[in-house]
Amino acid sequence: MMSTKKEATSLKNVFWVYPERNTARQREFEERRVWAPYRKVLESMGYRFGLVKPDDIHIEFDHERSVCFVNDARVTPRDTIFVTSMWTMPHQVVDTCNQLFLYSALETLGFFLPIPLKFANITVDKMATYLHLRECPVRHLPTSRIAAGRDVFTKDYAVAVANVKYPALVKPSYWAMGIGVCIAHNPEELHGLVGLARGADTAVVVQPFLSGASDYRVYVVNGEPVLIMKRSPRKDSLTANLATGGTAEYTKTLPSELRGSIDYIASRLPMPYMAMDFLHDGERFWFSEIEPDGALVFDKADELTDAMKVEAATKRFQAFVDGHSAHCAELNQ
Predict the structure, then answer these.
(1) Are residues 255 and 133 in the same domain?
(2) How far is residue 150's CA from residue 146's CA, in Å, rounded to a whole number?
(3) What percent of the chain has pLDDT over 90?
(4) What is the DSSP secondary-structure string of 75-114?
């Protein structure tokens, strides 16, 4: 039986740690399509939703006691969950160190993090994800990772891309939303893109380009798929992301080819919630990436679809509550 707020927990707050460096347009988009629906679901369950910046969180420790504050309000491991995804888009780079060390401190203080620091670090980088999930039944595409440092002019990275087949997809290793995705048709075009990556201070991954591939996002709660989103790219787009004009269909029916991979990934990344992404090239599936805080985007497509999203979000947040209850029980031992 799932726990409720009245059972053995004093949980009050579910806070997303989120660097606030967005434009007004980005803030309006995210508030309307993600945060406001999350707030509504959590409040209906009896909990307070919050977005807090990394620099809103302060800690006092004097050997006898440790205290955590959000702004000037005290919070404890028993009353607060922090959702701690790593945010590493270009405008958030200045916050990366603070996120990394803050999450470590929160974890050490005893807070329940639905995204443990280890898994936040693994899943934010595509190559780290593939290495951690190397035995996934649905295989990942052959991938090279280029650090794109100050010496890229030497082309010493060429040894890592000697087996690349062109055209190749080139994309930042730890960005999101399809931003920065390009095609290289030959080594010289790749070199130009690596140079641009150097200017953006980002590593890139290089993979075979699958023209017109569909993207299957599987929303998973406690190891079980609760919703599947099939994204299809716009005719002239390199990605199927909704942000780049892709279209989406939602279903609860999981393609049978993915069941073994869902179970494997869940065993290797034991988190209460994540989104698993797979590509389909028309013939077979390929493992793409993990989004530990994969957003359920509420775009008012139709009442049935929105109802499925509300149900998935409710199951997700109940898994957070149950995980927090189990965590607090361990603290009592």
Answers:
(1) yes
(2) 12
(3) 79
(4) E-TTTEEEE-----SGGGGGGHHHHHHHHHHHHHHT-B-S
> In sequence order, what DSSP letters do the residues of 231-242 get, joined into one string?
EE--TT-S---G
Give the model confidence (pLDDT) of 315-332 as tens digits.
Answer: 999 999 999 999 999 987
User: Is residue 87 in some structural domain?
Assistant: yes
Q: Is the overall model pTM greater than 0.70, yes or no?
A: yes
Position 46, amino acid:
G
Domain for residue 282, yes or no? yes
CATH number of the CATH domain containing 174:
3.30.1490.20
Token pair for 282 = 């028309």
The closest alpha carbon to 159, from 187, 131, 129, 127, belongs to 187
Q: Are strands 247-251 and 224-232 parallel, antiparallel or unpaired?
A: antiparallel
Nearest to 107 by CA among 147, 143, 66, 135: 66
The CATH code of the domain that includes 21 is 3.40.50
